[in-house]
Every structure is written in structure tokens, then in C-alpha cells.
Amino acid sequence: MDPDTFLPLAARLNTTAKAYAATEAVAAHLMPFSIEYNGPAPVDTYLVLHKPDEKATEPVDLQADTEAVSAFRGRKIHGTKLQLPKNYTLGFFHMREEEAPVDFNAAPKSTRVKSSVSAVTAPPAPVRGSRFTLDDDEDEEDEEGALDHTGFHDYPSAADEPEETSAGPEPLAWAKHGLHPVASAGNSLWVWGPDGPIDSGDDAYIRTCNEWLTAIAPVLHR
């Protein structure tokens, strides 16, 4: 069985420093909930940032301030700015499937048809993770029906197919995922929480980012 069939495809960064610098400059906000929407939104109109000190009248400076409060659907949320290490920048990219160039000069070779298993055991049903909801007063509806994860088809056995076939030149084209820059967010992002000021040492998102940037990334890219 070819492992490439199941392994995730590599993502290729299709950009340059000049192209990335030309993208729209935005502020990045990591919210403590999921939003089932993908598209433009008037964030600046509805996500109004205030200083934690209620007596303060001046607006929040996204560059200088490190703490802020706001509201989402009537609930107060607290934000902490996470500063990235030196030489790191934050950006948003659009990923799409692409086709690599084809090389038809590859030498022909004999290929063996791989036999397929006629009966495949279905994997266990996916486990639904818990998700934070801001609507604490709303009753949760029980979902009826489980995802059908047993949709495997019987494949022909090896006895019905030729053992050896002669193939022509094998093209070297394969599907890849390309990352294209959409917006740049500088060297910081805001991490928001619903239960008061965020503890940078205990918050899972901030701790994971810090561990990746300070411990894992230097080893991968040295």
C-alpha cells in the first residue's frame, strides 16, 4: 500500500518578502470560540477595544497597549497581546491545491499492480471535542444521527487484475498545496478569553506559541 496515498501533502510557500509586504496590514485576534463563517466582517465596528481601567477615556493603542477589554454578543471578554520574538512576523495565507510541473522525460518502468483488500474495517467514529459557547442560557440540542464513517466500498481482488503491466513514462506531476499571502499582521496578536484577564503562563494558546517559537522552531530551522 502506497503511504503517499494517506500522508498529508506538503504545503509550499508561494511568496516573496516584497509580495508579503504589499499585502493589507491587519490586527490579528485569537478568539476563545468558533465562528462558523468565512468571509468579510466589520470587526472594527463591533469589536471595540477599551482599556481595562474603566476610568480611562483614551482609546486602546494596538501598538503600545498590552491589555484590553471588549464584548462579544453581550459578554465581556479580556485580551492580552502576545509579542512574537525578534525576526518573526505574523501573516494570513490562502491555501489552495496546485499542480506541480510535469516531466514526461522520465524513463519507463515496469509497475506492479497493488492488490486491494476487499473488506476493510471501518475506523472508529470521530470523537467530538468540547467547544466553548457564549450562549450559556441556551439549551443545547442533541444531535441526532451519527456520521456515516463506514462508507467503504469493496475493491476487486488481486486475482481479477494482471500482476504485471508495462507503463510508459511516469509523469512527475502531483497535487500540492500552495500558500499565498493575503494579509500581514506585524509581530504580535491579541489572545482573548471570557473569564477575566489571561494568565500568560497558564493559557494553552500562549504557552503553545511560546514553546513552538522558543524550543521547537529553532531546532527545525537550524
From TrEMBL:
Q: Which GO terms describe its cellular component?
A: ribonuclease H2 complex
Family matches, as Gene3D superfamilies: 2.40.128.680
Upper taxonomic lineage: Eukaryota, Fungi, Dikarya, Basidiomycota, Ustilaginomycotina
Q: Name one Pfam family in it.
A: RNase_H2_suC
Q: Which organism is it from?
A: Malassezia japonica
- What protein name does the entry list? Uncharacterized protein
Region feature Disordered, mapped onto this chain: 115-168
Gene Ontology process terms (BP): RNA catabolic process
Q: Could you tell me where the Acidic residues compositional bias lies?
A: 135-145
CDD domains reported for this sequence: RNase_H2-C
